[in-house]
Specification:
Strand order of the largest sheet: 1-2-3-6-7-10-11-12
Largest sheet: 8 strands, parallel, barrel
Number of strands: 12
Structural class: alpha/beta
CATH topology: TIM Barrel
Radius of gyration: 19 Å
Order of helices and strands: HEHHEHHEHEEEHEHEEHEHEEHH
Length: about 300
């Protein structure tokens, strides 16, 4: 699947992934009113509103981008109804030709890790049949339980030709409390980057590994170091836009071939209609605002890469 992701990036000329992280405050009133009219102010009503909102955005941007990244917590908060919409969203995005990165941040060991890997990337056996429960193309994984937590995912990735993105240096301000700790004279994130490169060597695609890394746009200097440590690793870069990252911060995440990184923006795109820069689209034009935000992001990244 890493080869498909790269093919999609080349086709769209947009190393961009849109984070489908819906919150009720992002959803235009006409969508919530229609959902509540049908299902009431219930969890089912909220889930229906999220589903219609997601479809509108995906329809507006699917020809511009290679991938989406739904964050499962935004769906789980609405219980079973929300999780069903997560699964419907994954299926819909794949139908539109998009690679789906399930932002699930799973991390455990043994049979529990195996179950997470099967549930999100693999197939579960039921009697004489097997099913792909969530069927994302990639999943994000927390590595701090070591190889016991990662190896079950790598096994499924090999079997199903899927991939993972391992948390290495995350974009949040407090990440340094753990990830910058010095171990044998080096920050922990460097040691984790080396481990990701080792795991990735067991699961190579054509030119890049199916074991990617998550490195925040808010830490460009660390990104420069990690790019050298993980030359064959695709880097998923959160933190663009709403968290402060911009195109000029991103150049060191890419290799000389112009590949090697995919940049995530979530609320900067899906809630663009609420920003002053896109207010002209109005509530009814929320999906068009998202499309324009993608076009602007693509231009920003391209301009930064051309000037490096």
């Amino acid at each position: 699947m890493i080869d498909q992701l790269i093919a999609n990036i080349k086709k769209t000329n947009a190393p961009i992934v849109v984070g489908l992280d819906p919150m009720m405050k992002f959803i235009p009133g006409h969508i919530t009113r229609a959902a509540f009219a049908e299902y009431g102010e219930t969890l089912q009503g909220a889930a229906e509103a999220i589903w219609q909102y997601n479809k509108g955005i995906v329809d507006a941007v699917c020809d511009l981008i290679p991938a989406v990244k739904p964050q499962i917590a935004m769906y789980e908060q609405f219980g079973v109804e929300g999780v069903a919409v997560f699964r419907k969203t994954v299926e819909y995005c794949k139908h539109k030709g998009l690679v789906v990165i399930g932002d699930v941040k799973r991390g455990d060991i043994g049979s529990t890790s195996e179950a997470y890997a099967v549930g999100h990337l693999g197939r579960v056996t039921v009697g004489s049949k097997s099913y792909a429960p969530f069927d994302e193309d990639f999943a994000t994984v927390n590595p701090y339980l070591g190889s016991d937590g990662i190896n079950p995912f790598i096994k499924v990735c090999r079997e199903e030709k899927k991939g993972i993105f391992v948390l290495v240096k995350t974009s949040n301000p407090s990440s340094g409390e753990v990830q910058d700790r010095m171990v044998d004279g080096r920050p922990l994130y460097e040691i984790m980057g080396e481990q990701v490169a080792r795991w990735g060597s067991e699961c190579m695609g054509e030119t890049y590994s199916a074991v990617g890394a998550v490195v925040g746009a808010t830490y460009p200097e660390q990104g420069k170091i990690l790019r050298r440590i993980m030359p064959k690793t695709y880097i998923l870069v959160p933190g663009y836009g709403a968290q402060g990252g911009k195109g000029a911060d991103l150049v060191h995440f890419f290799n000389d071939d112009g590949l090697g990184a995919i940049i995530n923006s979530s609320r900067g795109i899906i809630a663009a209609w609420q920003q002053e820069a896109y207010a002209r689209f109005g509530e009814d034009g929320y999906a068009d605002a998202s499309r324009q935000a993608v076009l602007d992001m693509r231009e920003d990244i391209a301009r930064a890469l051309a000037s490096r």
